[in-house]
Amino acid sequence: MSRDRQNDSKYAPPAPLVPRDLVATVRERIDVSGNELVALHEEDVKAAALLFREQEVEAVAISYLWSFLDPSHEQRTAEILRDELPGVFVTMSHEVLPQIRAYERHSTTALNAFVGPKLQNYLANIKRQLADRGFGGTLLIVQSNGGVMSPEIASEMAVNALMSGPAAAPEAALQYARRHGSEDVITVDMGGTSFDVALVRGGAPLLTSDSEIGGYRVALPMLDIHTVGAGGGSLVWVDSGGILRVGPQSATATPGPACYGRGGENPTTTDADLLMGYLNPDLFGDGAFTLDVEAARRAVEEKVARPLGLSVPEAVEGIYRVVNATMAEAVNAVSVKRGFDPREFTLVVAGGAGPIHAVPIAQELGISRIIVPRESRCSVPSALC
Questions:
Q1: CA 14 from chain center: how many Å?
Q2: Which percentage of the chain shows pLDDT scores above 70?
Q3: Among candidate residues 183, 44, 372, 230, the one with its CA nearest the CA of residue 52
Q4: How many other CB atoms are there within 10 angstroms of residue 5's CB atom?
Q5: What is the pLDDT of residue 16?
Q6: What is the DSSP string of 201-244?
Q7: Which of 184, 233, 278, 337 has the lowest tally of Cβ within 10 angstroms?
Q8: Average of pLDDT values for 140-146?
Q9: Secondary structure (3-state) at 186
Q10: Is-contact 343 367, C-beta < 8 A?
Q11: Which burial class, exposed, middle or buried, applies to 148 when counting CB atoms under 10 A from its CB (0-12, 13-18, 19+)?
């Protein structure tokens, strides 16, 4: 895990992906020239396997200091673990990230183990359903660098699929912008839990090998996507200092925003958008269901307006402004902080709540052109999409 906000006294780093009591050390050593200094102690590996079996682990990450120069110790360790722990996902750092910088390699490998079993099961289910339906095409999985890979590769290198959803957005946004004579694009995608931003300069999306997801370092090449917890379902709350906050916690799909009428009692960005008049309660989601305006009003009044001594309209306006400021700062993170002037770019907007907030973001940053594709998943009336 990383701690970049060193001067924020209220910042807490994320919990370790691997609990300390599930970290096992093994005696072995390859030196900086790739020579074996200490042979692999296989009894240490078997002792670790016994611990993992007792704890019913689902995945194991193997990462030795200089394994990318000589992977034989990792390979033998994997053989022993697969014999001792059948059915357990095993991943090796020299395959995930064969390069120097031990911390980043350890972290990336741990992330691969963390998501590997879940993605394997997910892809196996997809392949089974496609086969049952007679699918005769080629199934490809989007990678976080914007490319694609086979399901077999994705099952072993699951970390390559992290942030793969937003990774498709820059290329899609570029296709729309080119119709209007632009190859300089900032794409924003506001979904239910997050707000994703990426930048395309001269027709090429920016890449980075120094990313983090949820505070965990990932050193694989990825599209340079900046994500903040400002989605339609992001919870609105007042902290102990009386400051209005939005996210990163989310109401999730169940129960969802208070206005969904499914038992949610905490206000969200969607509740504020509804009370601002930007959502038609009868046409939400193409009329799939009616939004409960009173439930949204009650949630904002109890959780925000009353604690801050504001009226409901004042509280709603404050929520809207905080959300927009958070998203504008996210756009700044991929443009101004990297030496690009956002005023020179076209803003391409996607996501269910993106079009509602696009104009204030553009005004804040001086962006003069906004494109909202018709295919954007828009929850406002179709005439506005």
A1: 14
A2: 94
A3: 44
A4: 12
A5: 86
A6: ETTEE-EES-EEETTEEE-S-EE-EEEES-STTEEEEE-TTS-E
A7: 337
A8: 89
A9: strand
A10: yes
A11: middle
Burial of 233 (0-12, 13-18, 19+ CB in 10 A): buried
Question: Is-contact 84 100, C-beta < 8 A?
Answer: no
Kindly report, residue by residue over 209-258, the tens digit of the pLDDT. Answer: 877 777 788 888 888 888 887 888 889 999 888 889 888 888 887 888 99
Q: Containing H/E element for 154? A: helix 151-156
Per-residue pLDDT for 174 more than 50?
yes
C-alpha distances out from residue 299 to 5, 272, 294, Å: 32, 10, 9
- How does 63-88 read in b/e, with b if 16+ C-beta sit within 10 Å? bbbbbbebbebbebbbebbeeebeeb
pTM (predicted TM-score): 0.72
Which DSSP letter does residue 305 get? Answer: I
- CB of 73 closer than 8 Å to CB of 81: no
Backbone angles phi, psi at 186, to 5 degrees: -115, 120
Mean per-residue pLDDT over the chain, rounded: 88
Q: How far apart are CA 260 and CA 249, in angstroms?
A: 17
Backbone dihedral region for residue 146 (phi beyond 0: left; psi -120 to 50: alpha; all else: beta): left
Task: Tell me which amino acid residue 348 is.
Answer: V
